[in-house]
Write a structure and sequence with these properties.
With 295 residues, the chain is of the alpha+beta class. It contains 7 helices and 8 strands; from the N terminus they run αααβααββαββαβββ. Strands 2-4-5-7-6 form a 5-stranded mixed beta sheet. It has a 3-stranded antiparallel beta sheet with strand order 3-1-8. α2 packs antiparallel against α3 (93-124), α4 packs parallel to α6 (173-190) and α6 packs antiparallel against α7 (243-253). The protein is globular and about 90 Å long. The protein starts with a helix and ends in a 10-residue tail after the last strand.
Length: 295
């Protein structure tokens, strides 16, 4: 009877915890077992699972709240300026141009957010079409650089680049531009006014290329260096937490990887490492991304 109770008591406790998790509650009380047997191992693994589920649920709630805010803000601005134009409150040409400018800016902001959400959905579904084409990497990096030139001037950021040695490679130019732009956007988001951001490209041994974005932001603590690449994660509610997650997934889809070197108080360097593959004939590659376990 004693042995039977000793065996069944933790099993029944785990069973009750499973029922709670099945009902959507992740703050369950999993018993601490010190026996060291299979049941204790099962309890430890189940506790880890509930902690991960609770974290994922919290991240998803935070994401939904952030996206709701990100959608509401531009929609409110657009509605206000449209009403002003319809009611004739913007009387002179200068006021109308200003209102139309705001509408265009907020519409672009909405388009970027929706595009990120669609990309994330495709990445999670492992359904993504990539184009193999000859890409002038120097021109592409110059395009990415110029996309933030006005912001750097407005915020007095020392913005530099060194991409003259970038070769021709075979890749998907649009997706490669998206990765670099996401890295630059992240750098500008965290770099204070008057700081420094550098975009560089260099060849590495072993036939690879390294495109790096260096900033003088606050740096990233070691415990957050993995989480910043997770979908839905954003620190202090800044952004939607999609840019770096999409950048890493796309880097892997393009045959490369993202590296991070950061020191708290001294800034961060994100490096996109790519195979320096040359080839003449562009062709379309169909198929989805490999599951994470296979990459």
């Amino acid at each position: 009877i004693y042995l039977s109770r000793r065996l069944t008591k933790p099993v029944l406790a785990l069973s009750r915890a499973v029922d709670q998790v099945a009902g959507g509650r992740y703050d369950v009380d999993v018993p601490e077992l010190r026996s060291g047997d299979e049941i204790a191992l099962l309890a430890d693994r189940f506790r880890e699972m509930t902690q991960r589920l609770a974290e994922a649920s919290a991240l998803e709630r935070n994401f939904l709240m952030t996206v709701s805010h990100e959608l509401r803000t531009p929609l409110t601005a657009i509605r206000g300026h449209v009403d002003a134009l319809r009611e004739g409150l913007a009387e002179d040409a200068e006021m109308r141009d200003a209102s139309l400018g705001v509408i265009r800016t907020e519409t672009d902001r909405l388009a970027r957010l929706v595009g990120d959400l669609l990309d994330l959905a495709k990445l999670e579904a492992d359904r993504f079409a990539l184009l193999d084409e000859e890409v002038d990497l120097a021109r592409l990096l110059e395009q990415a650089y110029q996309g933030f030139a006005e912001e750097s001037r407005r915020r007095a950021i020392d913005y530099e680049r060194s991409v003259d040695g970038a070769p021709l490679i075979v890749s998907d130019g649009d997706r490669l531009l998206q990765v670099v732009s996401n890295l630059l956007e992240n750098a500008f988001e965290w770099t204070p006014d008057g700081g420094r951001i550098a975009l560089r490209c260099e060849a590495r041994p072993g036939g690879t290329l390294a495109v790096s974005v260096n900033d003088t932001g606050p740096g990233i603590p070691p415990e957050e260096r993995d989480r910043i690449f997770r979908p839905f994660w954003s620190k202090n509610g800044q952004g939607t937490g999609l840019g770096l997650a999409i950048a890493r997934e796309l880097a892997q889809a393009l045959g490369g990887r993202l590296e991070l070197d950061s020191e708290v108080g001294s800034g961060s360097t994100f490096t996109l490492v790519l195979p320096a593959t040359l080839g003449p004939a562009p062709r379309r590659r169909q198929g989805g991304l490999q599951p994470a376990a296979q990459r």
